[in-house]
Amino acid sequence: MTTLSSGFARARRWLREHPLAFDGTLAFCTLVAMICSSFTDPGDGHGPPAFGARTPELFSVLLMTLTAAALVLRRRRPMQVLAVTAALAAVEYVLMDPPAPVVMSTVIALYTVASRTDRPTTWRVGLLTMGGLTAAAMVFGSTPWYSQENFGVFAWTGLASAAGDAVRSRRAFVDAIRERAERAERTREEEARRRVAEERLRIARDLHDVVAHHIALVNVQAGVAAHVMDKRPDQAKEALAHVRDASRSALNELRVTVGLLRQQGDPEAPTEPAPGLAVLGELVTTFRNAGLPVEVACADRDRLPAAVDLAAYRVIQEALTNVRKHAGAGAKAEVSVVRVGATAEVTVLDNGRGSAGRRPGTGPADGPPGDGDGLDSGGHGLVGMRERVTALGGALTAGPRYGGGFRVHAILPVEARTGEPERPGTAGGTGLRR
């Protein structure tokens, strides 16, 4: 059974790839059927048809051959083939008595037209063909007009029109389903690519924030340790301790970020909470240890959503890192986080003497890209902050202050647009006081 079905499938596939061969075979089979039927006398209806009771005329054989040959072109010229076969069938009804079944070719041609055109065309052509051939059979035939042979012409041509229209409708329905499935597949692939790109960008921002901040502090403290190693070893040890703490913090945050890339079933990911404003004091302490005086004003208000809390922390982290790298010696920074209605405003100010052009990430609108000495020299710091804030539906402005210094101001909506749920253990409070 399997061999038979596979052989049938191969034959069907071959005929579909070679339609002209299929149409030639169909034309030959139709010719054989018409010739065999022309030797059959239906009788008076009270007995079975008698084969060999009559012999077709040579003219009828010629007409049957011509109509069968026309069927070879039924796919390429369906309307022309229908016109030729219908005209020859009408000639057979007019000139020959009893007529040969030339109308069989017309039935196949009418089916082809109905299956390859639209429904209005099928109705018009079908009614014209049915009416014309039935009228020719009734008017010119030797049998009474109400004989079953005449109504058989009407029934067979009507059946061909209906069958062709049904096949066309089913083919269109299947094509529409296939097209929708392909479009849905393309949409899913595009959505998957978009989400992958967004996730890649988010992780890149997190990695930039973590690495740029901690490596900058490690660089500063290592320089201090190297400078005072010989004369003040105690101060050098303290600087090295700060290096160790900063590197440990960087590793922990990198472990949390990379843990997001784990698949289900991988070794257990770290359970440390994502950084937030609750650990802002520790962040500020690292900058103070690096020699940057920082004053903090953070209102004691309700907990912020996890996404907003993380974004505020990252904005402060990146802004203070830029101050430490580019504001110059003797610079001071001020940080404030204020809850105003449905928004949280984060502001970082400094009085540094570094020019605005040295602040990385300002872009052409705010000055030429900086030549910073850290990881932010490529100009991704403020760009990453702006992307992070914009993703939540907020706004960020950054630029030089009147009278000197730099200002970073972010407005974050309390209800994050991303709809990210609160993660257990995520620091969301803003409980630091001045």
Number of strands: 7
Order of helices and strands: HHEEHHHHHHHEHEEHHEE
Q: What is the C-alpha radius of gyration, as a whole number of Å?
A: 43 Å
Q: Terminal Cα separation, in Å?
A: 86 Å
Oligomer: single chain
> How would you describe the shape?
rod-shaped
**Helicity, in percent?**
55-70%
Helix vs. strand class: alpha+beta
Total helical segments: 12
Q: Biggest β-sheet: count, sense, barrel?
A: 5 strands, mixed
What portion of residues belong to β-strands? Answer: 5-15%
Query: Please, what is the average pLDDT?
Result: 77
Low-confidence stretches: 355-379, 418-434
Question: Taking strands numbered 1, 2, ... along the chain, how are they ordered across the largest sheet?
Answer: 3-4-5-7-6
Walk me through the structure.
This protein has 434 residues and is of the alpha+beta class. Helices cover 59% and strands 9% of the residues. It contains twelve helices and seven strands. It has helices at 2-17, 19-38, 58-70, 78-95, 103-116, 119-140, 148-228, 233-259, 280-289, 306-326, 363-366, 381-391; strands spanning 40-41, 50-51, 294-298, 333-340, 343-350, 395-400, 406-413. The strands form two sheets. Strands 3-4-5-7-6 form a five-stranded mixed β-sheet, covered by helices on one side. Strands 1-2 form a two-stranded antiparallel sheet. Helix 4 runs parallel beside helix 6, helix 7 runs antiparallel to helix 8 and helix 7 packs across helix 12 (381-391). It starts with a helix and ends in a 21-residue tail after the last strand. The model is unreliable at 355-379 and 418-434 (pLDDT under 50).
